[in-house]
Amino acid sequence: MRNIVPVISGKGGVGKSSVAVNLAVSLANTGAKVALIDCDFYGPSIPTLMGGGQVIPDHEGKLIPPVKYGVKYISLGFFLQNPDDPVIWRGPMFNKALVQLFQDVSWGEVDYCIVDMPPGTGDAQISFSQAVQCAGAVIVTTPQEVALADVRKSINMLSKVNIPVLGIVENMSGLKLPDGSIQYIFGQGGGEKLSTMFNAPLLAQIPIEVSIREGGDTGLPVTAQDTNPASKIFAALALRLQGILDKNSKSQPQVQIFN
Ligand SMILES: Nc1ncnc2c1ncn2[C@@H]1O[C@H](COP(=O)(O)OP(=O)(O)OP(=O)(O)O)[C@@H](O)[C@H]1O
Ligand SMILES: [Mg+2]
């Protein structure tokens, strides 16, 4: 598995899962082999955003992940008897499940593995950094100051656990009104600010779009609907990220998963 990329934010609800799914589908649209792993064990969103899916055991005891929109994906949500069941785990169980999602699933060859992370700078991020050697993280923020404060904390945490920042995605950047003007509901310039502060590229500014929310709720991501204008922004994000990763990987060996 090459290029493991967690999608991270210190703050909840900024659109990590939506960005992770649409980034994964956009990368697959370029013809790359893509995996999507849901590491938000306490609030898994991937089953909804990808429109469900079934995991099937193979004859070697590995799990065959569902494939949709060109993406192989997995979530702990698929193993809960009732989707409303809470997952109540402490650290060691979390670690074990995390490693299993990488090792016990028959992923085959993977060019890019996008990982949807839970919000915050807690156990999950630390476990992840210890279990997986990743290519670097994509940081998601909204433009507003309270989001930035939390996101700055998460970037500082990443540097402590040696995860490089590949770039920043500003989500919910503005809302296009019927008269063509843009309303900046969450303010302006946050992504730019972070990008300068941490010397990391601003990879994309994604507007607030009903179709992005709808695509998530119906399990048909905008990026899987090629007529959707929002999918162009994600396509550009995927290309930029690919460019950065492909340049980096020339000087790096295959990604290792530690146990
Ligand atoms: N650009 C956007 N335009 C419109 N709606 C969006 C956009 N990005 C995300 N949303 C919506 O905002 C909500 C939160 O998004 P999402 O679940 O992706 O965030 P998250 O950061 O993963 O949240 P959590 O911290 O709970 O994991 C969802 O309902 C999603 O459909
Ligand atoms: Mg999420």
Overview of the molecule:
With 259 residues, this protein is α/β, with parallel strands linked by helices. Helices cover 36% and strands 20% of the residues. The protein has helices at residues 16-29, 46-49, 91-103, 123-131, 145-160, 190-198, 210-218, 230-249; strands at 4-8, 34-38, 56-57, 63-64, 67-68, 71-75, 112-116, 137-141, 165-176, 182-183, 202-208. The strands form two sheets. Strands 1, 2, 5, 6, 7, 8, 9, 10 and 11 form a nine-stranded mixed beta sheet that branches. Strands 3-4 form a two-stranded antiparallel sheet. A hairpin with a 5-residue loop joins β9 (165-176) and β10 (182-183). α3 crosses α4 (123-131) and α5 (145-160) packs parallel to α6. The mean pLDDT is 89. Adenosine-5'-triphosphate (ATP) binds at residues 9, 12-18, 40, 43, 45, 119, 171-172, 206, 208-209, 212-213, 216. Adenosine-5'-triphosphate is lined by residues 9, 12-18, 40, 43, 45, 119, 171-172, 206, 208-209, 212-213, 216.
Q: Helix proportion of residues, in percent?
A: 25-40%
Count of individual beta strands: 11
Q: Could you state the order of secondary-structure elements as H and E?
A: EHEHEEEEHEHEHEEHEHH
What is the averaged pLDDT score? 89
Number of helices: 8
Major beta sheet summary: 9 strands, mixed
- 3D shape: globular
Structural class: alpha/beta
- Rounded Rg: 17 Å
**Ligands present:** adenosine-5'-triphosphate, magnesium ion
Distance N terminus to C terminus?
15 Å
User: Approximately how much beta-strand content do the residues carry?
Assistant: 15-25%
Spans of at least 5 consecutive residues whose pLDDT stays below 50 are: none
